[in-house]
Amino acid sequence: MDSTCEEGPANVGSDEEDSDSTEAPARIRDTPEDIVLEAPASGLAFHPTRDLLAAGDVDGDVFVAPINSLLLVDENVLATGDDTGGVRLWDQRKEGPLMDMRQHEEYIADMALDPAKKLLLTASGDGCLGVFNIKRRRFELLSEPQSGDLTSVTLMKCGKKVACGSSEGTIYLFNWNGFGATSDRFALRAESIDCMVPVTESLLCTGSTDGIIRAVNILPNRVVGIVGQHPAEPVEELALSHCGLFLASSGHDQHLKFWDMAQLRTVVVDDYRRRKKKGGPLRSLSNKAWSTDDFFAGLREGEDSKATEEAEESEDDSD
C-alpha cells in the first residue's frame, strides 16, 4: 500500500482529460483515502524510508508459535513476545533463539528498544514493565505491577522517560534506569489505551476501545485533543509515517485510516492550557477529526433513534 509523504497535499483525480467538457478541478486531499480490508488489521508498520504501509490482518495464513508482539532490532535480528509471557531473540542467520526467557506471567503486549539497542522493554498483561539486556542476553528486572494490563510502551523525552499505556486508560511514566517503580501517572478519559505511538519527544497518540485517537503531551501531562476516530469501534494499531506527516490507524471496522499530523505539531501546550476550560470537550486536531461533543453526539443520536424505533415497535405490538 503506497502513501505519499511529500510536503504538499496529494492530488486525487482522473489522469484522462476531456477537452470538450468543463469538469471541476481535481479534489485536493490532506491525507490518503481510507483503505477497506477484508478483515480487521492486527498490525501496522510504515517503511522507514519509502512511502509504503504494511498491514497484517487476522485472517493471515501464517502459523508460528503464539506470537503476540514482534520488534525488529536490525536487518537480521528480531525480538518476539508470546501469549504466555515468553520473550525471545532471533537471528535469521542462525537456527533457534539467541535468547529465550519467561519472566512475565501474562502475554507480551508491546516492546520497545533504547537507541543503543541494548535494552529491550516489554509491556505485559501482568501489569509489569520488563527490562531485558539483549546485548548480554540476560534478564534485568520487572517493575512493580500496576493496575490493569500494560498494553503499550514507548520512549519519550529523548529517552529519559518510558511511557506505558494500560487497559484502564492510565499512562504510567518511568524514569530511565528507574524501572522498578513509576515516577508519575495520569488517567485519560478513555476506556483503555490499547496502542501508542510517539509523534515528537513530548507528544504521543493513543488508540482506545472507545474508537478515539487522542493526542497526549508528556510532562506536563495533558490530553491535547483528538486526531481522529473509528466511530463505535476499537482502535487496534497506530503507525507514524517515516516523514512524520501522516498517522495511520486500523480499527475493528476493517478500515485503515490516515490522519494529518501538521496541526498537532504546531500545538503549544502552555497556550492550550490557558484556553481550554476544565472538563470541556476536546478539540479536533485534523480536518477529519471530530470533537468529543461531535463524536458522542453521533453515538447518542444513534441510541436515541434506536430507542425511538423500539418505542414505535412496542406501540405497534400493543395495538
UniProtKB/TrEMBL annotation:
KW Acetylation (keyword) present: no
Signal sequence, renumbered to the chain: none
Keywords recorded for this protein, A-Z: Repeat, WD repeat
Biased composition (Acidic residues): 310-319
Annotated stretches, region: Disordered: 1-33, 296-319
Superkingdom of the organism of origin: Eukaryota
InterPro entries in the cross-refs: WD40/YVTN_repeat-like_dom_sf, WD40_repeat_dom_sf, WD40_rpt, WDR55/POC1
Coiled coil segments of this chain: none
Pfam families named in the record: WDR55 (PF24796)
Residue spans of biased composition, Basic and acidic residues class: 300-309
Annotated family: Belongs to the WD repeat WDR55 family.
Protein's name in the database: WD repeat-containing protein 55 isoform X2
Gene this protein is translated from: Wdr55
